Amino acid sequence: MTDTGTTDTPSSPIDLPLPASGEETPPPPLRVNRTRKGIHAKETPSSQADLDDAALYFNRELSHLQFNIRVLEQSLDASHPLLDRLMFLLIVSSNLDEFFEIRVAGLKHQLASFHEETGADGMTPTRVLSEVSRIGHEQVERQYRILNDVLVPALEEQKIRFRRRAQWTPEQAAWVADYFEEEIAPVISPIGLDPSHPFPRLVNKSLNFIVELEGTDAFGREGGMAILPAPRSLPRLIRLPEALCETGFTDYVFLSSMIHAHAHEVFPGMEVEGCYQFRLTRNADLSVDPEEVSDLASALRGELLARRYGSGVRLEVADNCPDSLIDFLLKQFELGEEDLYRVNGPVNLTRMMAVLGDVQRPDLRYRPFTPGLPKPLRGEVNLFSAIRQGDILLHHPFQSFTPVEDLLRQAARDPDVMAIKQTLYRTGADSAIVGALVEAARGGKEVTVVIELRARFDEADNLALASRLQEAGAIVIYGVMAYKTHAKMMHIVRREKGELRHYAHLGTGNYHAKTAKLYTDYSLMTANDELCDDVHKVFQQLSGMGKPRKINTLLHAPFTLHKTLVEMIDREAKLAENGKKARIVIKCNAMTEPKLIRALYRASQAGVTCDLIIRGMCCLRPGIPGISDNIRVRSIIGRFLEHTRVYYFHNDGKHEVWCSSADAMERNMFHRVETCFPLLDKKVAQQVRKDIDTYLLDNCQSWELDTEGQYHLRHPGAAEPISAQETLLYAYASQA
User: Which residues does the annotation say bind ATP (predicted)?
Assistant: First the structure.
């Protein structure tokens, strides 16, 4: 495949030791050694190269931050509509929240417990936290600069404004005063700080104010400090009535501005010397000991309450807050200066997402489209008949998710359907999938649902779904205690002409209709006997007990997936060494598992061309002479969140295409129940290969990773611009 694109525009680099550039072409095989000054090459046979050398790997957490930097870059890309550029900027805040709640919290826990672990990159938690702080502060400051200096002025040009207190007209100020009196004052609860009122426990990521007071209160107490939690029941962004705005303008006021303006009313008779917003991010990871839990659902309910009050990991404060108050807050939360983020604007940008749903400006959003359908599913279709004719593959969101829901609906109402089995990881509170399962169970069908209660930040929803299904008569299983059930599977048993016929659905993404419109994923609907039999066995293994079952066609984590992927990579290496055709293409969300990375290094050394399309974290270092110079790593960032997991092997012309629920990560390979399914139908496999080739040709939204850890946005130059997502949208979807 010819690469017609050029690269430039590096993102902020990760500060890691860099490999030497190597000698004149052709370079000799290299042995890479870590030294204080970086990596130095020694001429040794490549077979002796130390693939365990820490210098061959990027750090996972810093690579995660790089992904957010690429997302932030989208807010500056004028090819995106303006409100969607704002969306990208706000997504960064949401991503960083989870990054601190889980990843940074985990590193801090290691330090606190004196149990430091290093990954393949060899970086200690102390060093990683230092780099996280450096990069995090740079990017957060840049994020607010983009908001204030680029997006807010651009939105104002489109007559969408965020009004600060100094900009309120007298009429707007009067309306805000009424709103405060009627909506805010009745539910606000100030907390004065004195010996009988210690510093309160504040909910994770809640908006709060620290207030400086002067004067004497009704009980004779001298003024000092108070904490003012913003009511969680109120929106953080309030739209002003149209009659109070200039003609054609839509004006918003932040709740924080209203509280600032009327803080004195909360403390009558006292002088408010200062009022400053702040927000604490806490450790939100759930910890359930499998050896001490007899009822997972009950244990999780308790943990969900504890999540709101975990140890502090980050403090965000208004940039005008005095140092004395900041020091006081840092001491209260046992945080250091490196954990402090001073921000020029609202401390919780994610809440600005409300604007995207409130402003009716289709000219400032991506153009709408209608997801397409493959020919066998167009019109009034009996899905069982259609699937019997051959495997059907859907590529969401370019193609509709509705057939997946329809398959369950038809199964629920079909008198010939005997049993339905389903895994649920992230599904949504008002899921049509769950509604169909409830209908099937109430209709007397045998319905078994494996719900993963520990799907991070969806635990409460999944507990509610479990109760709803149980009340309908479904058998609900919570999977295997020590392994999250991340596989995406559906199994339907139907009686046809006196015999039982099996149908299955396998996917790379969750059974969630909303995210199916935003995430790219593959769905396979099949009546293939071998695939259906394997799906049946995986369900039996999840619900019952016993030794691992022999599964013939699927790859199954934590049992066969990792081992077989390594074997298939090594097979390509042997083919290349024997002068035969070999190639590997992997598309997934993360590449962090060291043994898989080492296998790819071996394949590269053997001469195998390896193309990796990794959306987020990538610990593999491409382009090292003699080690990874045949590996290229790309990341596609665009309108849709890339989520498909595809593993392709040329195999000397005997092409193999696999789709999976699993990323190339340790947790997916060893600590989760995952499936990886082959595309046995040649037309279906060819469709995915064509899609993958489209991604590799992208020269508009493709970022290429270099040896130094920098990502460069590819540009078409004189070539034709190619956006993979736009190309697929045009190919599969109907334009509205």
Answer: 95, 519, 615, 643
